[in-house]
Amino acid sequence: MSVDSTPAQPFAHSADDIAKLEAIDQALNDPSPRNIGRLDQWGLADTYEIFSEIGTYKAVKITLKDTVQLDAALSIPRHLAPGQVCPAIVMPAPLSDLGRRAYIGMVHRLVQGGYAVLAYSQRGLAASQGKIQVAGPQDVTDATEVIDWLVGQDGIDPERIGFFGASYGAGTSLLAAAKDPRIKAVAATSAWGDLFASLYENGTRHLKAFEELVKLFKEENCSEEFLGIIQKIRGGVIDDEVREFARVRSPQHYLEAYNTSQTPILMTTSWHETIFSVPAVIDLFTGLQGPKSLLVQVGDHGNAELPGLMGLISKPTEMTYRWMDHYLGGSAGDGAEPRFGIRSEYMHNLLSDVRHEDWESYALPPKRFHLADAAAGERDARMAEGPAQSGWTRAVKVTGEDTEAVVAPKLIQTGLAERAGLPHVYPTADIDRGRAAIWTTAPLERAMQVRGSLEARVTVTPQEKSATIVAYLMDCDPATGKAKIITNAPYTLTNEQAGRATTVTFGLQPAHYVLAKGRQLQLIIDTQDPFFAGDNRAPSSIEFSSPKDAESYVDVPLGTLED
To answer: Which residues contact 246 (CB under 8 A, 6 or more apart)?
Structure first.
């Protein structure tokens, strides 16, 4: 099964959405009856007629110290009394051709709530000058200069500045807050915690997502430093330069700064996130000692907040309004207090709303399922609680071709379908057992839930010196042989010699998934996935085994729905 080549653009808009955003932009810049009247086809004419009475809006160019000009737009509430100041929200753009206009649907709500809003396209993006730095130190310096420019405008309270960003803008917002104490609150949707963990999971390059992001950056717009990193990652060179590039761009690296400043931080991510590492976001959240909140939702990168960026309702943006109101004193939200701790949806129910104080109370205790050999006459092996199972060996062929098991058929779009209640169905009964090893539990006697982090251990013996394996945990219907994905993870090992057995233990992506009575947990391990750059050489083979005192297992945080 191949992965669709649709770009990994979390903020891809339909033609109608783009037309709407352009019409809003025109009405904000020139609130004439004609321009406002054009918005009537989307039911927005009244909204922006009111906005023209309560707020100003102007496109501006912010000239930085190195003469680079950033494209920006500033909105301020009208009718401020002499000397009166208001809180401000700064919004670095996501990775989108729309640049700062990707946030334009949020402006009227924030201004009505008493905020000034400054949205800007980061250097190299959209209409801004300069070369793309990938949320590097230069982008953080730019954010500080943007604040300098903002507080020089009339009506801005320099003591009440917040940053909001989605995806690329989320990273810049978090990194800027680590350096500039004037940032008093942050909301970061589809955030990242550790950039290296997002590029390189369990020794395996996330090459598919990386290449699609590079397409969106457009290589001709990238800095010389980033161009060098691109070539190294493509060539499989993961050296100190790559690690340092990622380190300085990782909010996790600045944990001490956040804890010293006690900056309130709201972050969101998704269970089926294919761009940034979810465990790294959870690690960052867990390490924060100040006010914090984490929302984890159904779907993939950027799916959940997209309606909110367009001016509609979404949990990420509604939580953002509450967060900023609480810390900056505006009134864009619904008046309710923000929610601290962890809030999540479970797959695939958008109406679910589970809340816990921290990850420790959120995650269920793991149950260990030992991997066994296939019983006589059975096609697949069993995984079950109870005594460890040793002494078995299963071999799979490395052909260079994929099986029906993949992380997702499409970047981003598969997650959108999940949010619509249409998760991808995997025909796992059709998988060639010569190219994948499969273990399955007995049918569940009652409905259960997976909630927390997972871990697998298996002994791997490749014919070659290196090998990549990809593990998938599925929710399988035994009546049809079809399944839905719960979680996954790759692992790449490099041995000193071919044919050497190595026991590997690795984490899978955390999950929150409800299984119906009668379903089965199904673990699939194969050798190929288009999402990852594998180190397998075809044709060859890989053996999986379970030696004594290093028996193979998968730990699943499994409990009843009442747990």
So the answer is: 194, 195, 196, 199
pLDDT of residue 11: 52
Residue 38, token pair as written in the block: 């054009």
Query: What is the predicted pLDDT for the residue at 12?
Result: 63
Distance between CA atoms of residues 388 and 393, nearest Å: 14
Give the pair of three-digit tokens for residue 250.
């990782």
Other CB atoms within 10 Å distance of the CB of residue 317: 29
Q: What parts of the chain have a pLDDT lower than 70? A: 1-12
Regarding beta strands 265-270 and 204-205, do their DSSP bridges make them parallel or antiparallel, or are they unpaired? unpaired
pLDDT of residue 14: 81
Any idea what DSSP says for residue 291? S
Structure tokens at 183: 């940032």
Query: Hey, what are 214's tokens?
Result: 């590079």
Mind listing the domains of the chain with CATH numbers? 15-361 (3.40.50.1820), 367-560 (2.60.120.260)
- List the beta bridge partners of residue 119: 73, 91
Cβ-in-10-Å burial (0-12, 13-18, 19+) of 501 comes to middle
Q: Are the CB atoms for 397 and 539 separated by under 8 Å?
A: yes
Give CA separation, 32 vs 49, 53, 120, 260, 530, in Å: 9, 12, 24, 49, 51
Per residue in 236-287, pLDDT (tens digit) is 999 999 999 999 999 999 999 999 999 999 999 999 999 999 999 999 999 9
Q: Which residues of 26-35 are buried (b: 16+ CB within 10 A; e: fewer)?
A: bbbeebeeeb
- How would DSSP label each residue in 356-405? ESSHHHHSPPPEEEEE-PPPTT-SSEEEESSS---S-EEEEEE-S---S-
Pairing of strands 341-346, 349-356: antiparallel
- Beta-carbon contacts of 240 under 8 Å, excluding residues fewer than 6 positions away, are none
